[in-house]
Design brief:
heterodimer, A: 263 residues, mainly alpha, B: mainly alpha, MetI-like fold, 76% helix
Chain lengths: 263, 252
């Protein structure tokens, strides 16, 4: 292979690219420990003042809890629906399979803003008012295509035979699904769940449009931004980042170990 | 299945709300047309710069780094893509604001004596977008590059092609679907994004999503907002039609 020396421009580019990618994250985290009122240089030394302030901010903590609740429930629903849809499309050859598949994937190409407006108008017509529940519905709508795509990509021929075998041995549909297929699909179900969770956790525009009093964390952070830069936003941001990283990291590790890397 | 058909129908209802009068109003308003052209400008610029930055990165990740660390480096390179949308834009603000890290750094080097005004401009929006989409496009290009069989290069080299020629005649064309898919997804997300332009771009030279949000939050003019949303979708569909033949979604 090529020698290490000849690769040095490549390594340099890699280092530069990674610093570009991580620069804002690092700055954000550093200045969340700022001892002062502005999250800009000079850095006055580490302090946990702003974290303390953040945890005393009731509105922020409420929104954090709201975010967690919405993220977990909406992702659970998405993963379940995505799994059922993927299963039936992969092994039960329903009519219009291609059309259904297209309908499931197509929304990936529609902007969240447009989906948000569509939901706002239609939930209004259906008499569902702006609430945390509406936000949950919104997140199910935006994350379902992704969950379906991830889970569907992992259904292979090997499972098709097992599916048939289970039914030949007398398992009912429900038994096959719950006791055979689901356990075998665990890694991709977990990955889909994790990705949906992080996306819902960060999602702003739909949460902003569909909520009124019970807002989610990104909405609160956005509101705090109007007051200008403060290290408290940094602290909240660092928390958001840390949780996202953990969940995405977990998903990636499980995906890598679980089966063929596809995403 | 029932649930899904339901959402599709819900979505259709939105389209049913527009009428031609609003449409005419939209296209005769300079202000709104400006937001559309601004959006197109920013989005196209973003996509092009992101591809230029992402291609070498994906190439290096695919071929130049040791196999052991390939997975972890790829993960590192795309990790922030999946995380914290609002916060990411905000953290760029910390970097480029008037007293931000970059200005202080350049000042201490003696390169500038007055802080550069980088934040709250279209350039800042593009920067925020480029940061985001470089990661995404790296991922899609990488996925294509690693599928190229080494035997192709061997064959080309045996037939007398130099490294440059191999790259342009074999590697680049074979990785093109990844480029197109990445570019398309970037385009869709960028043109419909409200947060990045709102936080980094500020209130001047607004983009289409910002104009839509203004219609909703200030004027509560849903029909108008819908007209603009439909326009936005139309743009996306046109771009899809152009790029569709190069795309192989299932390969990503």
């Amino acid at each position: 292979m090529v020698s290490r020396l000849r690769n040095s421009p490549a390594y340099l580019y890699l280092a530069l690219a990674l610093s570009f990618i991580y620069l804002p994250v690092v700055i954000l985290v550093i200045f969340s420990f700022q001892d002062g009122v502005l999250p800009v240089p000079p850095f006055n030394g580490p302090s946990l003042e702003w974290y303390q302030k953040m945890f005393e901010n009731e509105r922020l903590i409420d929104s954090l809890i709201n975010s967690v609740v919405v993220a977990i429930t909406s992702s659970f629903v998405c993963t379940l629906l995505g799994f059922l849809a993927a299963y039936s499309l992969a092994y039960r050859q329903p009519r219009f399979a291609k059309g259904i598949q297209f309908a499931l994937i197509a929304p990936l190409t529609v902007s969240y803003l447009i989906i948000g407006i569509g939901l706002l108008v239609s939930l209004n017509i259906m008499g569902i008012s702006k609430s945390l529940f509406a936000v949950g519905i919104g997140h199910v709508v935006i994350n379902l295509p992704l969950c379906f795509a991830i889970i569907y990509s992992q259904f292979g021929d090997h499972l098709s035979n097992i599916d048939r075998a289970a039914r030949d041995l007398g398992a009912s549909d429900l038994q096959t699904l719950v006791r055979v297929i689901a356990p075998m699909m665990k890694p991709s179900l977990f990955a889909a769940f994790c990705l949906a969770t992080t996306l819902s956790w960060d999602e702003f525009i739909i949460a902003f449009l569909l909520s009124r009093f019970e807002v989610t964390l990104p909405v609160i952070i956005f509101e705090m931004l109007r007051a200008g830069l403060t290290p408290e936003v940094n602290a909240a941001g660092t928390l958001v980042f840390a949780i996202s990283f953990t969940v995405v990291g977990a998903a990636a590790i499980v995906m890598m170990m679980g089966s063929r890397p596809k995403l | 299945m029932l649930g899904i058909s339901f959402w599709q129908r819900v979505y259709g209802r939105l389209i049913a709300t527009w009428d031609l009068a609003n449409y005419i109003k939209f296209f005769s308003s300079d202000y709104l047309i400006d937001s559309l052209t601004n959006s197109l400008e920013v989005t196209v610029l973003t996509t092009v710069i992101s591809i230029i930055l992402a291609y070498p990165l994906a190439y290096i990740l695919a071929f130049k780094v040791p196999k052991r660390v390939q997975g972890i480096l790829l993960l590192l390179s795309v990790m922030p893509f999946w995380t914290a949308y609002v916060v990411r834009s905000y953290s760029w603000l910390l970097v480029i604001s008037e007293n931000g890290v970059l200005n202080v750094f350049l000042n201490s080097l003696g390169l500038i004596d007055q802080p550069l005004e980088m934040a709250y401009s279209q350039g800042a929006t593009v920067l925020g977008f480029v940061h985001f989409f470089t990661m995404l496009i790296t991922l899609t290009i990488y996925a294509n590059l690693v599928q190229i069989k080494p035997s192709y290069w061997k064959a080309a080299a045996d037939l007398g092609a130099g490294p440059v020629r191999i790259f342009f005649r074999i590697t680049l064309p074979l990785s093109l679907p990844g480029v197109v898919v990445g570019a398309f997804i970037s385009f869709v997300i960028a043109i419909g994004d409200y947060i990045t332009p709102q936080i980094l771009g500020g209130g001047t030279d607004i983009l289409l999503p910002q104009a839509i949000m203004l219609q909703i939050s200030r004027a509560a003019n849903f029909p108008m907002a819908s007209v603009m949303a439909v326009t936005l979708m139309a743009v996306v569909i046109i771009v899809y039609a152009i790029s569709a033949k190069h795309m192989k979604m299932e390969r990503v």
